[in-house]
């Protein structure tokens, strides 16, 4: 094998490596938005399904900034604890507008960390159009007095995620 052929093969290998590395970098950067972060974290299948069927998924993949109070799959199970099929009813096609409003109530159209939250309620407007209250009770942060923040200030490229243990419902 001549030096020219060997050199060409090395150049081809380096170029191929550069393309594969660049493709991997693009994929990992795309995984940083709120929706992809929730997917990677796991435990948010019900929320992600709701975002997808209502079209809110595209909003939360947008530039933001957004703050999402993200109920876990277990939080959605609490909605259906009575066994009356409330969760199925919420996801029924004829209730898409109600589901979209419910999920938009979990989104604040600005970036909000929970570092300075005190016992005095902080009221913030949601994407749905009604405010939520965030406050410190003893040593835990709550949304609307009943949904406890389990994990706060999870960064995403277009905002912040706070994991909550209940689905919050507009009053």
Walk me through this protein's architecture.
This protein is of the alpha+beta class and 171 residues long. The chain folds into two domains: 1-30; 32-164, FAS1 domain (Roll). Helix content is 42%, strand content 23%. The protein contains seven helices and seven strands. Strands 2-1-7-6-5-4-3 form a seven-stranded mixed beta sheet. A hairpin with a 2-residue loop joins strand 4 and strand 5 (140-143). Helix 3 (45-54) packs across helix 7. The chain starts with a helix and ends in a 7-residue tail after the last strand. The relative contact order is 0.16. Residues 4-31 have low confidence and may be disordered.
Spell out the key features of this protein.
single chain, 171 residues, alpha+beta, FAS1 domain, 2 domains, 7-stranded mixed beta sheet, 7 helices, 7 strands
Set down the secondary structure blueprint.
Elements: H1 3-30, H2 34-41, H3 45-54, H4 56-60, E1 66-71, H5 73-79, H6 86-90, H7 96-104, E2 107-108, E3 122-125, E4 131-137, E5 140-143, E6 147-156, E7 159-164
Parallel strand pairs: 1-7
Antiparallel strand pairs: 1-2, 3-4, 4-5, 5-6, 6-7
Helix pairs in contact: 3-7
